[in-house]
Design goal:
The chain is of the alpha/beta class. The chain contains 21 helices and 17 strands. The chain folds into 5 domains: 2-190, no CATH class; 210-311, 2-Layer Sandwich (Beta-Lactamase); 320-399, Helix Hairpins; 407-563, Heat Shock Protein 90, CATH 3.30.565; 573-705, 3-Layer(aba) Sandwich (Rossmann fold). Helix 3 (53-74) runs antiparallel to helix 4, helix 5 (110-120) runs parallel beside helix 7 and helix 10 runs antiparallel to helix 11.
Length: 706
């Protein structure tokens, strides 16, 4: 029970204190308070026994202030707690010496008190605080010596009582002095053990480090110490051979000159260290490639270098081997490229002759039974030409010498060409050939038509080759769009043999097909999909696959293509000729693109519409505020400078709430129409627009308004 009570008092206030130093100071202060309170308790009992009730009251009052200091210490107000303790103890001793007289021996408590201050106040960390405590104590001691009487008869009336009080105070002060002396000795012993353990710990780390460490006297250029790893690294037989030796016994003059560049000034953190790679020579004349770190430091005002040496010889050898392997690979790659280039030239020349001759023979008179032979000859030679082209394309992509063009492509016309090219082959096999093209794909895009055609042609050829019933679908849809770019997804779907799940990644590898039966039955090099995937990656896309064995496959990829802003828009003249005009209609167009504004104005004027123009959202709002009267309709682009279309419409609604508004935009995103209608628009016309579409929507809005 006493142990529990002691621990509750002494270890209070440590729960939220992470610093070991502050934890020790808190424990010491709590021990001091506990011991002082015990001493006061003993004094109070003895004073009651002697009938000295005023002295007992002074002790109780002093104990109250010590308890107050204890609670302040628990609340982390350490300085205030120690200040109250020092003042309280000095005031207590001054009052007690005055009340009882010097013959009672209360001044004997000054001896343990000096030890107490050393115990609770750290000399090295709180010199100012300790000085303050000593000054107060010396002043109190001087007061007691000069102002306190030898005897004071306020309380003491019994003869011989002074001798008893003196003996009692002497014993108690001796006990306190002994206790605090023992505590200080024990603290010093613990500190010494901690220092020794810390040194042992540091030595263990120092000698088990993977780095070789040298400590160099930078002024005398002498090696003062090194660890075990340094001895192993530089093949030194005994540490005694190197400690005290000159620095140039291990390091060259160039190394020493380099180390001298390390600044001696420790406050300059940018220049008091150096790191880099150096080649060192061991005692047995072996070269050691090392990463060296030099740090400058001061010890007792003397300048030293700590040189850490990390052996990277194996890494250097590996780098050397990698460089040799890289050179061999580059040489082999160049040789392969030259070989393929030469072979392609050598093979193309006779193949062109064979293909030309077979075409001539098929145009001339031949026997009926010779036709099949001629067709085999033509097919085989053309197949050989395709194979050569695939290998050359693959080699170009692998070597990084393949660059994409950036030319205008009409996407609808491009897909129409593919349909014309492959629909005949599909129908010949009795397959359906469907084309599913997004109606919003009216614009021209800047891309490499040849390589995009190569990818889709490879996919369509494979789809027709591996499909025996059902159909092929070529699809393209606009996923999203801005005024500058569009994201388009291309898709080739078939109902063919499909690809097993565990083979779906392998089909994109070079010279790989789903299995050997496929190769044997259908032929092919296994390069088509590999080339297609690499070409799509050059477009910054990724060719993906969804397939189920026996049910077909879907290959798809998504590309972000730049819109050709200078392209002519496709207009169906036949439809435009028969569109009726409007009577007394006043329309405001807000559009920042000159070409789009010109085309829209042309058609609206043809239909008898009075057109007013604004080049940004802010100007459109000003048109409504100005003296232009009421508008019957407003056609607003979403992306404009100064003020965007959505903000402009919100301002226009404040001026003319019921005016019909059409969003005139090249942007495309999910649920765009629903979103724009929520923001106040009544219709959406995508750019590039079809005149008949714009006409129909204007007519519809006017009818709804009527």
């Amino acid at each position: 029970m006493l142990t529990s009570f002691y621990e509750d008092i002494v270890y209070s206030g440590l729960r939220d204190e992470p610093s070991p130093g502050k934890r020790k100071k808190t424990i010491r202060f709590n021990q001091f308070i506990l011991l002082i309170l015990v001493a006061h308790f003993v004094c109070v009992i003895s004073y009651f026994c002697f009938g000295l009730y005023i002295s007992a009251l002074v002790n109780l009052s002093a104990a109250y202030f010590f308890i107050l200091a204890y609670h302040l210490n628990l609340r982390k107000k350490y300085l205030l707690a120690r200040l109250i303790s020092v003042l309280n103890l000095n005031l207590y001793l001054a009052i007690m010496n005055y009340m009882e007289g010097l013959r009672a021996g209360e001044y004997l408590f000054f001896f343990p008190y000096f030890l107490i201050m050393t115990f609770i106040i750290s000399f090295t960390r709180s010199l100012r605080e300790l000085t303050f405590a000593y000054v107060i104590t010396i002043a109190t001691l001087a007061f007691c010596y000069y102002q306190c009487p030898q005897e004071n008869h306020y309380q003491v009336h019994i003869a011989g009582l002074y001798a008893s009080l003196y003996d009692c105070n002497l014993i108690l002060s001796l006990l306190l002095t002994t206790f605090f002396s023992f505590a200080i000795v024990r603290i010093n012993r613990n500190n010494e053990e901690a220092i020794l353990k810390e040194k042992q710990f540091v030595d263990t780390i120092y000698n088990t480090s993977l780095d070789g460490v040298f400590i160099i006297d930078a002024e005398a250029l002498v090696i003062t110490d090194c660890n075990n790893r340094a001895i192993e690294l530089l093949e030194i037989e005994d540490k005694k051979q190197i400690v005290g030796a000159s620095m140039d016994s291990l390091f060259t003059k160039e190394h020493i000159q380099l180390f001298r560049s390390v600044n001696k000034k420790m406050e300059d953190e940018c220049s008091n260290s150096w790191q880099g790679e150096l080649a060192l020579t061991s005692k047995k004349d072996n070269t050691v490639f090392a990463f060296v770190a030099v740090v400058s430091f001061l010890d007792n005002e003397r300048h030293f270098w700590k040189i850490s040496v990390l052996d990277i010889s194996e890494i250097k050898m590996t780098q050397f081997e990698l460089m040799k392997a890289k050179q061999k690979a580059e040489t082999a790659s160049k040789a392969k490229s030259r070989f393929l280039s030469n072979m392609s030239h050598e093979l193309r020349t006779p193949l062109n002759g064979i293909i030309g001759a077979s075409n001539l023979l098929m145009q001339e008179q031949y026997l009926t039974e010779q036709l099949s032979h001629l067709e085999i000859l033509k097919y085989s030679s053309e197949h050989m030409m395709v194979l050569i082209n695939e290998i050359l394309d693959f080699n170009k992509i692998e070597s990084g010498r393949f660059e994409l063009e950036n030319v205008p492509v009409n996407m609808r016309a491009f897909l129409k060409k593919l349909e014309t090219q492959f629909s005949v082959q599909a129908h010949t096999k009795g397959l359906l050939f469907l084309v599913d093209v997004d109606e919003n794909l009216e614009a021209e895009f800047l891309t490499d038509e040849t390589r995009l055609n190569q990818v889709l042609s490879n996919l369509l050829s494979n789809a027709i080759k591996f499909t025996h019933a059902g159909g092929i679908t070529l699809g393209a849809r606009k996923v999203s769009s801005t005024s500058k770019k569009s994201v388009i997804q291309f898709m080739v779907q078939d109902t063919g043999i499909g690809i097993p799940a565990h083979k779906q990644q392998e089909v994109f590898d070079s010279f790989t097909q789903a299995d050997t039966d496929t190769t044997r039955k259908y032929g092919g090099t296994g390069l088509g999909l590999a080339i297609s995937k690499k070409l799509v990656s050059l477009f910054s896309g990724d060719l993906l696959l969804q397939s189920e064995e026996g049910k077909g496959s879907t290959f798809y990829f998504t590309l972000e293509l730049e819109i050709n802003e200078n392209a002519k828009m496709y207009i169906n003249d036949e439809k435009v000729k028969h569109l009726p005009g409007f009577k007394a209609l006043k329309v405001l167009i807000a559009e920042d693109n000159f070409v789009n504004m010109s085309v829209a104005r042309k058609f609206l004027t043809k239909w008898g519409i009075e057109v007013h123009e604004a080049v940004n959202g802010l100007e459109a709002v000003e048109k409504f505020r100005g003296g232009h009267g009421q508008f019957d309709l407003v056609l607003i682009d979403l992306e404009m400078p100064e003020m965007d279309g959505i903000t402009a419409l919100a301002e226009i609604r404040k001026l003319q709430p019921g005016v019909p508004a059409i969003a005139f935009t090249a942007a495309v995103y999910e649920d765009m129409r629903i979103d724009l209608i929520k923001k106040g628009f009544m219709e959406v016309v995508p750019k590039p627009f079809r005149p008949e579409d714009l006409h129909n929507k204007i007519q519809k809005l006017l009818q709804n308004r009527a």
